[in-house]
Each structure stands twice: as structure tokens, then as C-alpha cells.
Design goal:
Layout: H1 7-19, H2 26-38, E1 43-47, H3 50-60, E2 68-72, H4 78-85, E3 89-93, H5 104-108, E4 115-121, H6 130-140, E5 143-147, E6 155-156, E7 159-160, E8 167-171, E9 184-188, H7 191-200, H8 209-214, H9 234-265, E10 271-273, E11 280-281, E12 287-291, H10 298-307, E13 313-314, H11 334-342, E14 343-346, H12 354-367
Parallel strand pairs: 2-3, 2-4, 4-5, 5-8
Antiparallel strand pairs: 1-9, 6-7, 6-11, 8-9, 10-12, 12-14, 13-14
Helix pairs in contact: 1-9, 2-9, 3-4, 9-12
Length: 369
């Protein structure tokens, strides 16, 4: 992934620096409002990363030691780590082979009376079945946190991913389509949720630093609870505001490039590329391919691509296979392990050319014979 950053972002960041307001301030507020509107939420609360956004979401929902939270192992490790930050226990669920997402059935097979929440991931930009999971979570009486780190620009049931979510967490890391360098966001529809999230990200203060400094009279703030310093800066938000304008074009371009990949890869046996689910559209934040029955192993394919000048990456990780989670004995996760061991992510970015794609596919075709 190569972030699409240009002179407009550089100018916006410079303007923020020249303004003298470089910490959380008016640009953060504007970015929150515009991003929330983009994803169909009533409120946005900017944070320092998606990881801190997930942490705040679980604190907000009262998840605590002794609780269990169902998560996919097939996700960046931050998804499971956020559960441990609040002292709860992550319980790994398997995923659907085509989408890489947890489902009602995989969640139901591992949930227990101690399950208080589920973190469902729109993996690699592929939306999960929002209608099915939200209905199931309501029926089970558990909270559903939507990890939308990769999903800006994706849709489910004709609406932006995140629309209608009780709590959704977003990432603006450089590997995402919309970037602020580092940064994240929590989106909610509940005004009380939004108010508490704003306090939690800023040391528990009952009035933000921006509002305090804007007041013409002295403001004596109070600290209502033990909280965190998870703020975004105005420099980051200035970049994000420019990026918001780029997003529709970036999604359209990536979907066009993905369509061409699908055409070029169609005749290669043992290679299955990621596609849109029936209920939505992916932004193709990642274009992964599953090597099922492929002649060459995944790692050998990665090595040959690198030799031929192609920077591909291994597929999405499985947290339960990492040393950090060696103390957890998960249930069988056959699809997760199949995907993480036999998939790779092909280059897909705004500088990718038709010749680049043909070269990449020619290497793959040669390895399939």
C-alpha cells in the first residue's frame, strides 16, 4: 500500500502549523463531523489510532475482567489486544472462507454465558454481514463493536460500512485508503456515548482543552474518572480533511484495478482472489488471493515475486498462532489457519499500472504450471 499524499496535504499540514494550533482543536472537530457524515454516523470522536479507538469502545461498554469478548483470530493482533487492555478474555472464532469475516454461526459456536461483547472486523475492507450480526448480537444480549479499521469506502446493504453501528472503530494508518499518518476514530449515534468517549480520550476532563482555551473566562476543569491521552492533533486532522475528498476516487480506482486482476487471474488454477460479498462492496483495501491447490507454496510464491521485483505480502495474520497468545487454547480454527497459511496480498495502489499487473500475473501464472 502506497498512501496517496500530495501537495494539498502538505499545504494543509503547513497551514495547521502556521495557525499555532497543532494539538487537538478546530480541525479535529471538523474532521470528526465530516468523517461521521461520510460513514452515516451521528458522532465521530477522533483518537490517536484504531487500537486506542477499540480500547475506548470496550471501556465505554463496561467490559471488564471476567468478561469474554469474541474476536476473529484472523485479524491484525490489535483486535485481540484491545480485549486484554480492559482485562477481559479474548475468545477466538473462525471465519468465512470467502470473506475472511466472522459469522453468526462461528460466533455462536464459541460464545458462553460470560460473553459480553463481540468485535467483528470488516477484514481487509470486505464488509461482514452487518444485518445478520447486528440482529444476532441483539438477540444474544451482547454488545457488537465493529472494527472498521480497513473499511472506509466499503458498503453493506447499500450503505457505508459503519452506518447503523452502535460503536465502530476506524484506522487512518498509512496502509488504509484514508490516512492521517497515524490516527483513528470512534463513530456512534448515541450523544451520551460520544460525550463520554471525548472525556475518556482526554484524561477524563469534563471540558476539552480546546473549549477551555477558547473561553473568554477562566475555566476550572474537573477530572471525572481515570482515563487516557488518546487525542488526535490538528495537523493530522488537516491532512485527513484533504484525504476525505480523495476517498471516492481512490475507491473507484481500486475497484477498477481489482476488476482487472480478476480478469487476468481467471484462468489460473488453484488461485482464488477476494471478491465482493453478495450483500455489499469492498473498497479493496487489500487484494488477497488464496492459493488452494496451487502448485507452488505460498512462501515460495512470495520469494519468487520478490526476486522478480514484486512487493507482495503474506496474508492476514492469525493472532492465536503468535507467541503473545500462546497461553490461550483456542477452539479449532481450520478456516483461519487455511487462510493465513495459504494466502498472500498482491500490490494494489494508486500508482499501479496495467503493465505492473500483467507482470505480477505472469509470475503467478508461471508458478502455477
Amino acid at each position: 500500500m502506497i498512501p496517496h499524499l500530495g501537495e494539498e496535504e502538505a499545504q494543509a499540514a503547513a497551514d495547521a502549523v502556521r495557525s499555532g494550533w497543532v494539538a487537538q482543536g478546530p480541525r479535529v472537530k471538523q474532521f470528526e463531523q465530516e468523517f461521521a457524515a461520510l460513514v452515516g454516523a451521528s458522532h465521530g470522536v477522533a483518537t490517536s489510532s484504531c487500537t486506542t479507538a477499540l480500547h475506548l469502545a470496550l471501556v465505554l461498554l463496561g467490559i471488564k475482567p471476567g468478561d469474554e469478548v469474541v474476536v476473529p483470530s484472523f485479524s491484525f493482533i490489535a483486535t485481540a489486544n484491545a480485549v486484554r487492555y480492559v482485562g477481559a478474555t479474548p475468545v477466538f472464532a473462525d471465519v468465512d472462507l470467502a470473506t475472511g469475516n466472522i459469522t453468526v454461526e462461528t460466533i455462536d459456536s464459541v460464545r458462553t454465558p460470560r460473553t459480553r461483547a463481540v468485535i467483528a472486523v470488516h477484514q481487509g475492507g470486505v464488509p461482514f454481514d452487518t444485518a445478520a450480526l447486528r440482529k444476532a448480537a441483539d438477540g444474544w444480549g451482547v454488545h457488537l463493536v465493529e472494527d472498521a479499521a480497513c473499511a472506509a469506502g466499503s458498503t453493506a446493504y447499500g450503505q457505508p460500512a459503519g452506518t447503523g453501528a452502535a460503536v465502530a472503530a476506524w484506522s487512518f494508518h498509512p496502509r488504509k485508503l484514508l490516512t492521517t499518518g497515524e490516527g483513528g476514530m470512534v463513530t456512534v449515534d448515541d450523544a451520551l456515548f460520544a460525550g463520554r468517549l471525548r472525556r475518556l480520550r482526554e484524561h477524563g476532563m469534563n471540558v476539552s482543552a480546546a473549549d477551555r482555551h477558547a473561553s473568554s473566562q477562566p475555566v476550572l476543569e474537573a477530572y471525572l474518572e481515570t482515563a487516557f491521552n488518546y487525542r488526535m492533533t490538528d495537523i493530522q486532522a488537516a491532512i485527513g480533511l484533504v484525504q476525505l475528498g480523495r476517498l471516492p476516487g481512490l475507491v473507484a480506482q481500486r475497484r477498477s484495478l481489482a476488476t482487472r486482476y480478476h480478469e487476468l487471474l481467471a484462468d489460473i488454477e488453484g488461485l482464488v482472489p477476494v471478491r465482493d460479498p453478495a450483500y455489499g462492496q469492498t473498497n479493496y483495501q487489500s487484494f488477497w488471493v488464496l492459493l488452494d491447490g496451487f502448485k507452488t507454496t505460498r512462501d515460495e510464491v512470495l520469494a519468487e515475486l520478490a526476486t522478480r521485483g514484486v512487493s507482495a505480502r503474506r496474508g492476514i495474520m492469525a493472532a492465536h498462532l503468535e507467541p503473545a497468545y500462546a497461553d490461550i487454547t483456542p477452539p479449532p480454527l481450520p478456516v483461519t489457519e487455511r487462510l493465513t497459511r495459504n494466502s498472500l496480498i498482491l500490490p494494489l495502489h494508486h500508482k499501479l499500472t496495467a503493465d505492473d499487473q500483467e507482470h505480477i500475473v505472469s509470475v503467478l501464472r508461471g508458478l502455477s504450471r
